[in-house]
Specification:
The structure holds 2 protein chains of 2 kinds. Chain A has no helices and 11 strands. By secondary structure, chain A is an all-beta fold. In chain A, strands 2, 4, 5, 6, 9, 10 and 11 form a 7-stranded mixed beta sheet that branches. By secondary structure, chain B is an all-beta fold. In chain B, a hairpin with a 5-residue loop joins strand 9 and strand 10. Chain B is globular. The N and C termini of chain B lie far apart (40 Å). The chains are: A mainly beta, B mainly beta. Chains A and B meet through strand 4, strand 5 and strand 9 of A and strand 6 and strand 10 of B.
Chain lengths: 116, 108
């Protein structure tokens, strides 16, 4: 149980275009979803937290107009990188929590974004 | 400041040797700490949390508030323990702060 999927697993896009990454909880209702960014050989950096039906809460330094997050249902959150630049190339990981008990996070496999 | 520090990027030990992965934290509130593990080509998964005081796959971790540490230990390393280990601090219900990770290599 508690499986989180991400789609696509890899994406290459041209500079200036937008790309959408989906995060789905497959067998539980994810009240809260998290989006992280991981640079090579560095830690996961929390970008934003989203609760179903509410606006996302962004961490300091993360541009909300550049990284659009939508958590429209209890099983789906999307991250859209708008007007992508090469410096947005990174590994994006989502996680989901059903906010029960110990508020455990279940992680997706990640999406490798390369902006050319 | 809220911070998690894992001083070692890489730790190599021989099979059967004891392992200690270091984690120190900085947090003004009551800390809740976790260890996550990422095996090769797999997603990040929870290994253990301090409030459960459990032993998972032979690993234990004790929260030492005086030293602000949450080191991960295992008395006898196995080859299958080779992975990336992340220490994480929950600073608020929805906010997790991760350390930079330590790659553990268990040599045959």
């Amino acid at each position: 149980g508690a499986v989180v999927s991400q789609h696509p697993s890899r994406v290459i896009c041209k500079s200036g275009t937008s790309v959408k990454i989906e995060c789905r909880s497959l067998d539980f209702q994810a009240t809260t979803m998290f989006w992280y960014r991981q640079f090579p050989k560095q830690s996961l950096m929390l970008m934003a937290t989203s609760n179903e039906g509410s606006k996302a809460t962004y961490e300091q330094g993360v541009e909300k107009d550049k990284f659009l997050i939508n958590h429209a249902s209890l099983t789906l959150s999307t991250l859209t990188v708008t007007s992508a630049h090469p410096e947005d190339s990174s590994f994006y990981i989502c996680s989901a929590s059903d906010n029960r008990g110990l508020y455990e996070q279940y992680f997706g496999p990640g999406t490798r974004l390369t902006v050319t | 400041a809220q911070r998690v520090t894992q001083p070692e990027k890489l730790l190599s030990v021989f099979k059967g040797a004891p392992v200690e992965l270091k984690c120190n934290y900085s947090y003004s509130g009551s800390p809740e700490l976790f260890w996550y593990v990422q095996y090769s080509r797999q997603r990040l998964q929870l290994l253990l949390r301090h409030i459960s005081r459990e032993s998972i796959k032979g690993f234990t971790a004790d929260l030492n508030k005086g030293e602000t540490s949450f080191h991960l230990k295992k008395p006898f390393a196995q080859e299958e323990d080779s992975a990336m280990y992340y220490c994480a601090l929950r600073a608020g219900t929805y906010k997790y702060i991760f350390g930079t990770g330590t790659r553990l290599k268990v040599l045959a």
